[in-house]
Design goal:
CATH superfamily of the largest domain in chain B: P-loop containing nucleotide triphosphate hydrolases
Strand content of chain B: 25-35%
Mean pLDDT of chain B: 85
Strand order of the largest sheet of chain B: 6-7-8-3-9-10
Largest interface: A-B, 29 and 34 residues
Number of helices of chain A: 11
Radius of gyration of chain A: 22 Å
Mean pLDDT of chain A: 87
Order of helices and strands of chain B: EEEHEEEHHHEHEHEEHEHEEEH
Structural class of chain A: mainly alpha
CATH topology of the largest domain in chain B: Rossmann fold
Number of domains of chain B: 2
Shape of chain B: globular
Strand content of chain A: under 5%
CATH architecture of the largest domain in chain B: 3-Layer(aba) Sandwich
Helix content of chain B: 25-40%
Shape of chain A: globular
Oligomer: heterodimer
Structural class of chain B: alpha/beta
Largest sheet of chain A: none
Distance between the termini of chain B: 36 Å
Order of helices and strands of chain A: HHHHHHHHHHH
Largest sheet of chain B: 6 strands, mixed
Number of helices of chain B: 9
């Protein structure tokens, strides 16, 4: 336990600036908005945007709150995912690049413990920071909307929960993929990883074209697992799409699907694969 | 348990087609200070990394009669390793580095650490990246010598340090670490600095062990032979690997049992003996 605590503390101390990227991003957006508002106020502009929301039809407040909180969280989710991908390389190869790998590996700590702590910081750590920032955003957005329009915190809260879960699973999958590549390649792991995927995709395409095979697209499959999708079935009742409750139910169904389970399974497999590659490394 | 702390049998390591180590067989005893000498690329660092389980290899390395596996962290409950002293984590502060090693290494001895810290005057809040090379050396020594281990492996630890810090480095190690139960294994280019410390010497060249002997016995086995330059052919008969010419004299290192008429003899130092065994330029030692 003492070792885990020391390892975790060290990883935070050496990676805090990367880990807090979602905080810097959120803070930057708030500061920029605030500066814009102050400049506008000093120039004597009226807050037109606050007035225009009053023209929104009655009954749409819930949908607006839900979709606005969801969208903002997704945007932050993209930042969090990029953060986790950068962390993957920094956690695995940072010591090697800074020529201090031997110091860290000359301690009587098992590799499973070292890598377990690193992965914990990369996925749950980034997820925690992202969730907190998204919660603050959701709260601010909901408060503003209730103040200027009307609505209920419930929609903002559900949008927050669903967006962080959906983004979280995609982030877990993508960062685990680049964790694997970071263990495979010591230098420029991101670019080499992307090139590897593109290379495999090229081979698949050539085989499909020349041999008449029908191998599914790897790139397409990774893209499907990595991105957030809205597939709302409104053909039977188009008006249902306007109902926020319908959207929420559809989203829950999408979240608790095989695809989500596959993201988790692939992430675990990629973590284990990365672990074995790292263990086979020669330290020089 | 045998008297040897390390037993290495037929150790070989290849980097592609390059043979870094070839059938190295060695025994390192307890309570000894052993020097590993070799030119650049002779295989010193590779040997040390194999002894720590950092590199996969052929052959066997036993530590206290236990076979060492690749990337087995268990080795570090008995061995502390200092490579180049610049290899600290620049992102941590001095205090964070100390806390980290204290937390992860169960061999940490708080009493020794406090003593070394009080002697070092290290700025605890300063980032390691902003420390001078001398300060980094002190920090590396602090975090290594505060560990209760049996063996200390040093791989060119003082590379790039000025002479004052190099002397302090070795004096601190001798004073704070060494006793008759502990082993120090040093690979270094600066033979002159460790010459007085070493009890045994190992010379490695092209991945092969050329010599493993007690320093005193080695110094008795070789000597410097000086001859007037006109008598040089008498020296050449014995095919010395290195000859130097100065002020009308020629000198070489030859086995002590060789007698040449008209020659004067001096006691050889380790650098001389190294050159006599390996040959090549004096710059490498």
């Amino acid at each position: 336990m003492k070792q885990c605590k020391a390892l975790f503390k060290k990883e935070i101390q050496t990676h805090w600036s990367i880990l807090l990227t979602p905080v810097w991003f959120t803070g930057g957006v708030y500061v920029t908005t605030l500066i814009g508002l102050i400049i506008g106020w000093l120039k004597g502009s009226s807050l037109d945007w606050a007035v225009s929301v009053k023209h929104i039809p009655k009954g749409m407040e819930g949908l607006i709150m839900y979709s606005s909180v969801y969208s903002i969280s997704l945007l932050l989710g993209v930042v969090a995912t990029i953060t986790a991908i950068i962390l993957a390389d920094s956690l695995i190869n940072g010591g090697f690049k800074r020529k201090c790998e031997i110091l860290h590996l000359s301690q009587p700590v098992t590799l499973s413990r070292i890598l377990g702590i690193k992965y914990l910081l990369m996925v749950p750590g980034t997820f925690l920071i992202f969730s907190l920032m998204a919660l603050i955003n959701a709260f601010v957005m909901s408060c503003l909307q209730i103040w200027f329009l009307s609505g209920h915190f419930y929609f903002g809260f559900v949008a927050w929960v669903q967006s962080i879960l959906e983004t979280g699973f995609s982030m877990m999958f993508l960062s685990s993929l680049f964790w694997f590549f970071a263990a495979l390649y010591r230098q420029k792991s991101f670019f080499k990883g992307v090139l590897t995927i593109l290379g495999i995709q090229a081979v698949i395409s050539i085989l499909n074209y020349t041999a008449g095979l029908d191998i599914p697209s790897l790139l397409g499959y990774i893209g499907r697992l990595a991105t957030i999708r809205f597939e709302l079935n409104g053909s039977s009742n188009p008006q249902a799409l306007e109902s926020v409750f319908y959207l929420i139910t559809q989203k829950w169904q999408m979240l608790w699907s095989w695809e989500t389970l596959l993201k988790v399974v692939y992430s675990i497999a990629l973590f284990v694969g990365g672990f074995h590659l790292y263990r086979r490394r020669q330290v020089s | 348990m045998s008297a040897n702390i390390y037993q290495i049998n037929n150790l070989s390591k290849n980097y592609g087609k390059t043979k870094a180590l070839e059938n190295v067989t060695l025994s390192l005893g307890k309570g000894r200070i052993i020097g590993l000498l070799g030119k650049n690329g002779a295989g010193k660092s590779t040997l040390m990394r194999c002894m720590l389980g950092f590199l996969a290899h052929q052959g066997e390395v036993y530590l206290n009669d236990k076979l060492l596996r690749h990337r087995d962290p268990e080795v570090f409950t008995q061995v502390a390793f200092i490579p180049d002293v610049s290899g600290l984590d620049d992102r941590l502060s001095v205090q964070q580095t100390i806390d980290y090693i204290q937390g992860v290494n169960p061999c940490w001895n708080e009493v020794t650490a406090s003593k070394l810290l009080s002697l070092s005057n290290l700025p605890l809040k300063r980032k390691v990246g902003k420390l001078s090379k001398g300060m980094k050396t002190k920090l590396y020594l602090l975090i290594t010598l505060s560990l209760d281990v049996d063996i200390l492996l040093l791989d060119e630890p003082t590379l790039g340090l000025d002479i004052a810090f190099r002397k302090e480095f070795f004096n601190t190690i001798l004073g704070e670490f060494f006793d008759e139960q502990k082993t120090i294994f040093i690979s270094t280019h600066q033979v002159e600095e460790v010459e007085d410390l070493l009890q045994e010497i190992i010379i490695i060249d092209n991945g092969k062990i050329l010599l493993h002997e007690e320093v005193e016995s080695l110094k008795n086995r070789y000597r410097v032979v000086n001859l007037p330059i006109e008598l040089a052919p008498q020296l050449m008969v014995h095919e010395p690997k290195v000859i130097s010419k100065t002020l009308g004299f020629v000198s070489a290192i030859l086995p002590s049992n060789i007698e040449i008429e008209g020659a004067t003899y001096n006691r050889a130092n380790l650098a001389d003996i190294f050159l006599a065994v390996v040959g090549g330029s004096n710059e490498t030692v």
